[in-house]
Amino acid sequence: MVYTVLFAFLTGACFTDLRRNVIPNWLTMSGAAAGLSLHLLLHGWEGLVYAACGLAAGFGCLLVLYMLKALGAGDVKLFAAIGAIAGTEFVLSCLVYSILYAGVSGLLLFMWRRQIIETWRESLLLLFNIRTERIGKAWEEYAASDNRIRFPFMIAVAPGALTAAFFWIP
């Protein structure tokens, strides 16, 4: 039952993110509410705590990436809802796999756009600025740069969730 709800939720999120490059609040909030309600109905108060912990884990981990301007607020709420539906362990696994898939996707886009040299140069400059303690300004300049590769995070979340489900579904 839990994975059916998760699959339906991720399908809707994938469709809207790929089509309009946005994950609407009504979808993420209803996903979180569904997860909390489902676990409350299935397991009582312990289920509600389980879902709330998953929600907090998904939200907290992605909030850091949002603050670094690595992704949007919709992605933060998406992972909060995934955590509410599937729990802490699943959302953390999904996050790790999604970041790995995002890295591979970004590398492929770099190669396709032939920006790999520019990006390596900017990355090395950013690392140098970290070393010289000018990280705040350097990160803001990099985040505002037009050279950054941007793509819907659902390109990485969908296979990340499938990979996590492969290892978690009994």
Structural description of this entry:
With 170 residues, this protein is mainly alpha-helical. The protein is built from 7 helices and no strands. It has helices at residues 2-20, 25-67, 73-86, 88-113, 116-131, 135-144, 154-168. Helix 2 crosses helix 4. The longest helix is centred in the N-terminal third of the chain and has 43 residues, at 25-67. It starts with a helix and ends with a helix.
How do the helices and strands line up, and which of them pair or pack?
Elements: H1 2-20, H2 25-67, H3 73-86, H4 88-113, H5 116-131, H6 135-144, H7 154-168
Q: What keywords describe this structure?
A:
170 residues, 84% helix, single chain, 7 helices, mainly alpha
- Rounded radius of gyration (Å): 18 Å
SSE order in H/E notation?
HHHHHHH
Helical residue percent? over 70%
Calculate the mean pLDDT score and round it: 81
Shape label: elongated
| End-to-end Cα distance | 13 Å
Measured by DSSP, the beta-strand proportion falls in under 5%
Low-confidence blocks of residues: none
Taking the sheet with the most strands, its summary is:
none
**Tally of contiguous helical segments:** 7
**Number of DSSP-assigned strands:** 0
Which structural class is indicated by helix and strand composition? Answer: mainly alpha
Task: Summarize the model shown.
With 170 residues, the protein is mostly helical. It has helices spanning 2-20, 25-67, 73-86, 88-113, 116-131, 135-144, 154-168.
